[in-house]
Design a protein that fits this description.
The protein is α/β, with parallel strands linked by helices. It is built from seven helices and eleven strands. A nine-stranded mixed sheet has the order 3-2-1-4-8-6-9-7-11, with helices on both faces. It has a two-stranded antiparallel sheet with strand order 5-10. Helix 1 packs parallel to helix 2. The longest helix is centred in the N-terminal third of the chain and has 15 residues. The radius of gyration is 17 Å and the shape is globular.
Length: 256
């Protein structure tokens, strides 16, 4: 198992049957700053050969450290997500989680790395997430982050002790409630999510998602058009937490 010597952090990805989305996410991940410092583990459902081929091709890029786990049978989103996180935490103390429709911005890994270091000992913080769906007038807050009592599953990161507090209540299959709902409503308890005011992740999953009602619904509820890759500005090397009252984009006000 390849490890991050300094921070012991791994990126895990769940992939299934959406090759066009998979291609976009892997292309963006390959362009992420510091990708050479973060090993990538991809857990792929044995459903779509094109997706499998894309994942395998990613492992041959000279500047990434990556490997592919192909399942023996299709297990569904709940189980595959659990397997990806468990695989990551079996060998690392910090995990960054991506899905096949969460496109990372160039500094997404750097943002997660900062958040994982900044809040590791703050037990009131459950996770760090790169997603935000903010209004155009707030895109100038390039280095600002907020905390909110919420959980967002699109481009997120957490620590092993937080993982140990949620794994026993994980839904056993896709016939049960979605894993992210269980975290938000049960195992997160009153702990916080930290996320940027200017998103470092773009959600593109308009088609083929288990809980998306179509492209129009996705555009209204999930798509975040204003994010780090669409807004010109200087490079950010450090982030700072600001009061959540600064933004109109609290997830509690705009739930899915």
């Amino acid at each position: 198992m390849i490890s991050n010597r300094n921070r012991n952090t791994v990126v895990v990805m769940t992939l299934c049957n959406r090759p066009a989305y998979t291609q976009r996410v892997l292309d963006a991940l390959a362009r992420c700053e510091d990708i050479d410092r973060f090993p990538v583990a991809m857990l792929v459902e044995p459903v779509n050969q094109h997706v499998i081929d894309l994942a395998v091709a990613f492992t041959f890029l000279p500047h990434v450290k990556a490997w592919v786990n192909i399942g023996q049978k299709q297990v569904g989103c709940n189980v595959n997500t659990y397997s990806a996180l468990a695989h990551g935490f079996d060998h690392h103390t910090r995990v960054i989680a991506l899905e096949d429709d969460t496109v990372p911005g160039r500094d997404f890994l750097q943002f997660c790395d900062w958040g994982l270091s900044k809040y590791q000992n703050d037990k009131a913080v459950f996770s760090v997430c790169g997603y935000q769906r903010g209004p155009l007038e707030e895109v100038g807050y390039r280095n600002a982050v907020i905390r909110e009592q919420w959980f967002t599953p699109w481009g997120w990161a957490t620590w092993k002790d937080r993982w140990d507090s949620m794994r026993d209540s994980w839904p056993a299959n896709d016939n049960q409630i979605s894993w992210d709902t269980v975290i938000d409503k049960l195992t997160r308890r009153d702990r916080y999510e930290v996320r940027p005011l200017l998103a470092r992740i773009q959600n593109i999953g308009a088609e083929g998602g288990a809980h998306v009602r179509g492209a129009a619904w996705h555009a209204e509820h999930h798509l975040n058009r204003h994010w780090i890759e669409s807004v010109a500005g200087p490079r950010v090397d450090e982030w700072r937490e600001v009061p959540s009252t600064l933004t109109k984009a609290l997830r509690a006000h705009h739930p899915c």
